[in-house]
Amino acid sequence: MKDERTNRHDHTHIAPDAPPQPRGHSHAVAPATFHLHPHAGHPHGQPARVPASDAAIAVDGVCAGYFGRDVLDEVSFTVNRGEFIGVIGPNGSGKSTLLKVIAGLLPVQCGSVLVFGQRPSPEVRHLIGYVPQSESVNWSFPVTVRDVVLMGTYGRLGLFRRPSDADRAAADAAIAQVGMQDYTSAQIGQLSGGQQQRVFVARALVARPKLMLLDEPIAGVDATTQHAIFTLLEQLKEQGTTIVATTHDLSCVAEWFDRVLALNHSVVAYGKPQEVLTSETLSATFGSHVLVSPVLPA
After folding, report:
1. C-beta pairs of 268-277 under 8 Å, 24+ apart in sequence
2. For a FRET experiment, which of 22, 103, 176, 177 has its CA 20 to 30 Å from that of 5?
3. With 50 as the cut, is the pLDDT of residue 58 above it?
4. DSSP of the chain, one letter per residue?
């Protein structure tokens, strides 16, 4: 007869809204908490409010997450065409989830997302360039820089069409645009972190998107590469591209972004850097311990 004790375990099950504090640990930011609530009374699909005609992105009452748990809690904001928007918040606050929702890579549980007035369906994704976090990429995969950048054309080509000479020329132009023309045939895994990040920016650029979504584009790169990436993004903005980038580096926020979205599952604040980067807002966003005090321009 099977001993029922073999089926016992010492796991502790907790409610989604009550994560434990690990013993002997200190946190620089408040621990992220998931929440779980019914969405029966929430609108789904069409926006509750009609966005402005110049809105590149209209997020209205969005709840979204994973495995039935919401990471985003009724998030609403709009981004005008040609704006450069920064998203700040602690780890687990929903920054990456928000970009995936806008890109159409993750469905919403309630609310709506419009990109240039349309839902982020496959028909609209060619307008969007998405750069994921570098840590989510398998850098050991044996592909060259040109191979990676050509992947940015697949959304337009489809899975079973080979890139044309024009596509290869566009890839080489995008590689040159990010300053990686001397590494076109290099294996992606042989590059430095900053070089790899530039390649993935080029992959997003090759399709000439109207909207760029970048998840921590300057994480783990040196100051020179940070400046080069932001200078490139600023040039794209001047050409009319709308840009949304997440970052943990508050020191760059005031210098580069037109507006800042402070996010911790829900919107804490949204406005110009000098309006958002206050001690009160940063404390509400990151918890009681804020490690970086950004220097705002006079």
Report:
1. 268/89, 270/77, 273/86, 277/250, 277/253
2. 22
3. yes
4. ---GGGG--------TT-PPPPTT---SSPPP--B----TTS-BSS-SSPPPTTEEEEEEEEEEEETTEEEEEEEEEEEETT-EEEEE--TTSSHHHHHHHHHTSS--SEEEEEETTB---TTTGGGEEEE--GGGS-TTS--BHHHHHHGGGHHHH-TT----HHHHHHHHHHHHHTT-GGGTTSBGGGS-HHHHHHHHHHHHHTT--SEEEEESTTTT--HHHHHHHHHHHHHHHHTT-EEEEE-S-GGGHHHH-SEEEEEESEEEEEE-HHHH-SHHHHHHHH-S----------
What is the pLDDT, as a whole number, of residue 76?
97
Query: In this structure, what token pair is assigned to residue 20?
Result: 């434990």
| Nearest residue to 80 via CA among 273, 237, 286, 280 | 237
For the stretch 237-291, pLDDT in tens is 999 999 999 998 888 888 899 999 999 999 999 999 999 999 999 999 998 655 5
Residue 23, C-beta contacts closer than 8 angstroms, at least 6 positions apart: none
Q: Does domain 33-286 have CATH number 3.40.630.30?
A: no
What is the model's pLDDT at position 69? 87
Distance of alpha carbon 6 from alpha carbon 3, whole angstroms: 6
Residue 14 one-letter amino acid: I
